[in-house]
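From the pipeline queue, job 12 of 40. The input is one protein chain; the requested action is below.

Action: predict structure.
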Amino acid sequence: MNNAGAMHTQRRETADGFEMTIGVNHLAHFLLTDLLLDMLKASAPARIVNVSSHAHYGGWIVFDDLQLTRLYIPMFA
């Protein structure tokens, strides 16, 4: 089950240089699932479950600054 809900008051980056919120809430899910995919296939029937909250309704994607280097607003992250 992929479940995360990090929101940081100040801009931070992952060790790989991604904005921390997208790194924890999105990229980490993809990485974990990718690393476990062979085991999940071998363990059939297996499931991958992604969950989230209603917090995404208050967010906004800044497509021309996905890393939010110009203006960091926690809810946008």
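Job complete. DSSP finds one helix and no strands in the chain.
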